[in-house]
Amino acid sequence: MKPFIPYSRPILAEAKLIENAANFYAQMDTRRTIRDFSDKPVPRQVIADIIKTASSAPSGAHKQPWTFAVISNPEMKRKIRVAAEEEEQKNYAGRMSEEWLRDLAPLGTDASKPFIEIAPYLIVVFKRAYDIHPDGKHKNYYVNESVGLAAGFLLAAIHQAGLCSLTHTPSPMNFLEKLLERPSNERAVLLIPVGYPAKGATVPDLERKPLDEVSVWWE
Ligand SMILES: Cc1cc2nc3c(=O)[nH]c(=O)nc-3n(C[C@H](O)[C@H](O)[C@H](O)COP(=O)(O)O)c2cc1C
């Protein structure tokens, strides 16, 4: 076992904590899912750092059970769009329940997904059900929770950098495993276009639940 190493953070004054938390909330509260992207290029280094941030998330037994596939290749983006739209056509034409379609109506989404080709980068998040090593399979723990956390870090990093994202789930997403030639232990969970919003992009006028609806306090 490796020896433990010291860890400390500066102790900030309460006023500074309050300011930091409020500022971060104000910054994160401006994050929105956009569906209308610009094709303006984004530096590769930005995407690399965003993924490093995502991979700094906590994970069960520190297994980091994720792979981020980064796609800027136009031919691959085209293949992904075609396959995603094929699934989404089936979803909107019958696989989704009436209730689901009613819930989606305010978002104005449909089976057409041009943003998959327009956004400069796609990041596909894969979960690793287990890891494959020369001596066989190694278990991963709390894979869904861990990958969900990494995806949250990813979206926060994208926003903090000044870019926009769309959390997209054109399910079933096994076409991504095939197109991106992933090994048998990986399952696609999210397809995330990343880039700048198109000029004149709009978003649904959504409200977020107030604090007292999303939290209970025992004080
Ligand atoms: C797990 C998950 C799956 C989603 N799938 C889709 C999707 O397939 N297509 C889409 O347009 N938006 C999708 N969204 C985006 C949500 O519609 C969006 O987050 C929600 O409406 C709130 O809007 P906001 O992100 O702007 O706050 C998904 C979000 C999550 C967290």
Walk me through this protein's architecture.
With 219 residues, the protein is α+β, with helices and mostly antiparallel strands. The chain has a single domain, classed as NADH Oxidase. The protein is built from eight helices and six strands. The chain has helices spanning 14-28, 44-54, 74-95, 98-104, 115-118, 143-161, 174-179, 211-214; strands at 66-71, 121-128, 130-133, 136-139, 164-165, 186-195. The strands form two sheets. The chain has a four-stranded antiparallel beta sheet with strand order 1-2-6-5. The chain has a two-stranded antiparallel ribbon with strand order 3-4. A hairpin with a 2-residue loop joins strand 3 and strand 4 (136-139). The longest helix is centred in the middle third of the chain and has 22 residues, at 74-95. It is globular. It starts with 13 loop residues before the first helix and ends in a 5-residue tail after the last helix. The model has no long low-confidence stretch (mean pLDDT 97). Flavin mononucleotide is lined by residues 32-33, 35, 107, 109, 166-169, 203, 206.
Record the SSE blueprint.
Layout: H1 14-28, H2 44-54, E1 66-71, H3 74-95, H4 98-104, H5 115-118, E2 121-128, E3 130-133, E4 136-139, H6 143-161, E5 164-165, H7 174-179, E6 186-195, H8 211-214
Antiparallel strand pairs: 1-2, 2-6, 3-4, 5-6
Helix pairs in contact: 2-6
Bound molecules: flavin mononucleotide.
